[in-house]
Amino acid sequence: MNKFFIRMVALVMSMVIALSMVGCNKTEPEIDAQEILKALLTNVNYDSELSQVGHNAELYFPDLPQNTTIQLYTGSGYFADEVALLTLPNNSDQTQAMECVRNHIKELRDQFMFYVPEELHKIDHAVTHQNGRYVFLCITNDFETAKRVLDSAGHSTNNVVDSTEQNKQESPDTETIPGEEADDSVIQKPQEGYPVLKSQSGTYYDYGSYVIRVDNSAFELYSYSDSRASDYAALVNKTADALANKVTVYDLAIPTAIGIVLPDDIAETLPEYTDQGEAIKKLFSKMSDNVVTVNCFDNMMQHRDEYLYFRTDHHWNGRGAYYAYESFCDVKGIDAIPLDARREKQFGGFLGALYWSSCKEDPVLGKEPDTVFAYCPKYEGAHMKFTDNKGNTYNWNIITDVSDWKASAKYSTFAGADNPFAVFTNPDVTDGSVCVVVKESFGNALLPYLVDHYSTIYEIDYRYWNGNLIDFALEKGADDLVFANNLSMIGSNLLIGKLAGIIG
């Protein structure tokens, strides 16, 4: 009886194994990915109308497996809402694709943390789903509905809530920070020949993956990416080549605080300190002959012992922007109007994005808020109108009194803050000259200086504006077009993708 039982068990097991092998040889039926994508777009609620990105979507997801197709839908730049479907060439590429999606979510979070922190809740509840060679991403406040839609497709659905864990406030420490993407040609010790800056403490405090504090100043970390520099340069080149002999295209690459005012002794201790002067040179080497490059690095370094950048924010202040303006005037062959010929305004009590995003648990920064120094146009008859994200138009002061504004908003004194579009008119410049400025928030502090040299300036914030830049410049009869972009933007896949959206 026992022998018979054993034989029967063996027979059953052999049959199970055989059947499982047959099952393994069958091809699992593919899901209808397009129907699922349609359901995400129609059944899930979004705070912004989504529009398809098109062929530039690949800029948002670099390093995907070759021959991956991307269908990407994004909302207005003020909202993080997003839907993506990545179709891989085969199932073996799943791990690489999911890593690209995670990197995209992290970059999205880093950008919105600085500019629209109200959107972080959506990003921290981003829904990802992988089924065979299909990878879905959905970012929305309606994430429970998105999960239900994707759960119906089978396999695994995940909430990317671990991003909140990664960004929890921790006690600062002095551990070294690994570099994100190294390029040996730009990883150097601080340059000689400029004013020497030395810290009081001789150490720095780490606030996560992208912020350090030295004494009473916070710094956003920076790492040069050659591939992203190439992507950015290609967009500028495309614009300049299309406008050749019609519009002069300038590129002003703006250094960030860590490249100019980080104390030298701290720069020497960072494992991979990026020389932003060398980074700008490499970037400009990729520009076509139709681009006039403006390198403000040297002029800013000559004045690095002055108050050029905020201690609690990632932006430069009015004085820092002035020295970049001087460099632009030098390249253009016009006289810069000196600071002492302009009316100065001061607004105290500013606590910027680095404080609120990373260091607000640390009492050091909060004890010493920044002062915003702003310099009015020499020709005070100049004025501006801006159009907000809802299409409303407002007359506005180029330098706004923000004395009574909340502590986090005082950088908004410059040029009406971040809006999709603005027009600056100077009746004292009568030559009919027209300039188009393509910028993100760093450009706000530059515009009060540029307005003294043109009859009309059209300001375009590529993050929020919808249109075709090349057609617009021709339509408005532009003499000059200025790309005024900071190096962190030039290193961001997300923002390069946004810029590509207005160039085509």
Structure, described:
With 504 residues, the chain is α+β, with helices and mostly antiparallel strands. 34% of the residues lie in helices and 19% in strands. Strands 11-10-19-17-18-16-14-15 form an 8-stranded mixed beta sheet. It has a 6-stranded antiparallel beta sheet with strand order 1-2-3-5-4-6, with helices on both faces. A 3-stranded antiparallel beta sheet has the order 7-8-9, covered by helices on one side. A hairpin with a 2-residue loop joins strand 8 and strand 9 (217-220). The chain starts with a helix and ends with a helix. Mean pLDDT is 88; it is low at 1-28 and 161-181.
Give a concise summary:
With 504 residues, this protein is of the alpha+beta class.
Structural class: alpha+beta
How many domain regions?
Answer: 2
Number of strands: 19
Spans of 5+ residues with little confidence (pLDDT < 50)?
1-28, 161-181
Oligomeric state of the chains in view: single chain
Largest sheet: 8 strands, mixed
Percentage of residues in helical conformation: 25-40%
Supply Rg.
26 Å
Mean pLDDT figure:
88
Overall shape: globular
Q: Strands of the largest sheet, in order across it?
A: 11-10-19-17-18-16-14-15
Q: Report the β-strand fraction as a percent range.
A: 15-25%
How many separate helices?
Answer: 18
The separation of the N and C termini measures 79 Å
Task: Give me the secondary-structure topology.
Elements: H1 2-25, H2 33-43, E1 51-52, E2 69-74, E3 82-87, H3 94-115, H4 120-124, E4 127-131, E5 134-139, H5 143-151, E6 156-159, H6 162-166, E7 205-206, E8 211-214, E9 217-220, H7 226-242, E10 248-254, H8 257-260, H9 264-267, H10 276-285, E11 291-295, H11 297-302, H12 318-332, E12 344-350, H13 353-359, H14 363-367, E13 370-375, E14 383-387, E15 393-396, E16 421-425, E17 434-439, H15 447-450, E18 456-461, H16 469-475, E19 480-486, H17 487-490, H18 493-503
